[in-house]
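Quick one before lunch.
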Amino acid sequence: MKIAVLTGAGVSAESGLKTFRDSNGLWEGHDVMEVASPEGFRKNPELVLDFYNQRRRQLLEVHPNEAHSAIAQLEQTHNTVVITQNVDDLHERAGSSQVIHLHGELLKARSVYKENTVRSWKKDIVLGDLCENGHQLRPHIVWFGEAVPMMDVAIEEVSSADILLIVGTSMQVYPAASLLQFANYHCPVFFVDPNPSLNQSERFRIIAEKASTGVPKAIEQIKGLR
Ligand code: APR
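Model of the adenosine-5-diphosphoribose complex:
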């Protein structure tokens, strides 16, 4: 049995990382296009670098929660692939070994010039931090308006999954939200979110709870599907 787990900011909310669209969300203090777009970076690179420096410093202070751990433990009984919209490394720190980051990774940096110059980066990025070829470094994050290079891989994983577990995403940002359409019609979909954006149906099994309690419940139901 293969499980694809699609996660969003809600899976990391109980670790202390803000979601984007909840009240008091991350975007509330910022104009998204100012801090998460190539235009914003061109206009004011220090503002953008500082925005991600603050998020990177916070990430190094927080820890995976029960939902990340329960998802990681799924690997003991199922072929599990995590497809996350999150840029944190909490799935990896909880022990998940197959994690696809659709929107990049906060603890990596790359050159503004070439996308394939990705390196691990856990400290601040400031103007003057350059790659080997002398180009400015930037966060390895997919900004609004940029391509989502891992989307094709993610579509393959979802279309070949026997079960789909979706946790903590408003399903409002594309192309990530379109992944649901690629699940086989006979593939049961479990949806864990306190404010679910999908309705209960034969196919969609909604668990309207926070991730830390809802994910273990979903996994109990999944284990009953053998
Ligand atoms: N447990 C589970 N889900 C939660 C919790 C929680 N404790 N708290 C909030 N949620 C849910 C909300 O109800 C909402 O449905 O998490 C979801 C968060 O939605 P968004 O803030 O839109 O986050 P996400 O769906 O991941 O956003 C997708 O948008 O801004 C871009 O690139 C950014 O990856 C992000 C993408």
